[in-house]
Fold this sequence. Notes:
Elements: E1 8-12, H1 16-27, E2 31-36, H2 42-45, E3 52-55, H3 57-66, H4 69-75, E4 77-79, E5 81-85, E6 91-95, E7 103-107, H5 108-120, E8 125-129, E9 132-136, E10 141-145, E11 151-155, E12 158-161, H6 168-176, E13 182-196, E14 206-212, E15 215-220, E16 227-234, H7 243-252, E17 268-275, E18 279-280, E19 283-285, H8 288-291, H9 300-317, H10 321-353, H11 357-372, H12 380-386, H13 391-414
Parallel strand pairs: 1-2, 1-12, 2-8, 5-14, 12-19
Antiparallel strand pairs: 3-7, 4-7, 5-6, 9-10, 10-11, 13-16, 13-17, 14-15, 15-16, 18-19
Amino acid sequence: MSWVQGARVIVIGAGISGLSTSxxxxxxxxxxxxxxxxxxxxxxxxxxxxxxxxxxxxGMRVLEALGIGGAVRRSAVFALERxxxxxxxxxxxxxxxxxxxxxxxxxxxxxxxELLSLAQQESNIELQFGARATSASADGLVGLSCxxxxxxxxxFDAVIGADGVNSSVRxxxxxxxxxxxxxxxPTGIYYSEIYVGLGAECAGPLVHIWPRSPSxxxxxxxxxxxxxxxxxxxxxxxxxxxxxxxxxxxxxxxxGSGLVEADLGQIAQLRTVQxxxxxxxxxxxxxxxxxxxxxxxxxxxxxxxEDSEVLLKAIKEAADWTSAFERFELVRRTEMDxxxxxxxxxxxxxxxxxxxxxxxxxxxxxxxxxxxxxxxxRSTYNAVAFTHSxxxxxxxxxxxxxxxxxxxxxxxxxx
Length: 415
């Protein structure tokens, strides 16, 4: 991997995948220029309200390798259980996994703050805020529009687009090769966030879910400050929900009876990204720029962090940037396609399946099988959240899992 030493790399986008990849490359000897269109660091990791993220073993492994696992744990809340709020007002607590298995809930701004602080300590990383990519080519030529109004064109050994769902780098790739088809596709599912006090019944390190098909609400615990509640509304084929619609869903669930429209965040539609190619020569896209998925399995941040790990492994096994980027896509695409399909399906589970009697029976059987057969059985969710195994393998095991539960249910009815 000596060819990486001294290589000039530009990373566009200072989000989770951009920051973690920049740090890893700098530690391998590359000279990294990390640019972000936001004006200053406080816009990335300031004290303003921000979505909560969930981290499992996949993401925590990467953070440990970077050296900030402990700091992230101190900023996060570890949740072993979730609380399901039924329409009749009753609640049911359910463990996420086995005895010590849970998820870390952390504000996006807190995680980005830890990663940004680490990047600022790396002598091989130059951070440039208020800069926007205006062009990028397969041979490493990048055009930038800078904060002071000037324009710059520079050549790099590698160009890494980590600029999210609305990736300009992905757009440049499509311009370079019209055969590359890429799009950010609307899902028909809208969301808004609420910052609200939930009362004593919702205190503690718990994730709370209110399934209200075709909608659901979910809240995440925080170290301090208001509770983050997200409202998701499925409006496929229907009009975009208004703030009044969001309030009706929240009030019907018994969340924040005194809410007014000013308490709601912006209403936005979830979008996923599909692209027929993730790389072109010395140019590659990673993270949401390559494979944005819906958030219903809580794997977005984990996948972004894993991308940096997979990319660095591909670089170590390759002889040049082009072959490294091709290898990254070859290894990662099938995994992310599988994760995307599983996340799509999980919306139905969160919005209704968690309280549907028949599906609840299946969920309890999965939990029992996992406890009774710890060495041989893992539910799909647990395999995704609490192991480092392949996403594709977890998806393929789902059909066998369903067949096994069908057999158990049939045996129970025949007794």
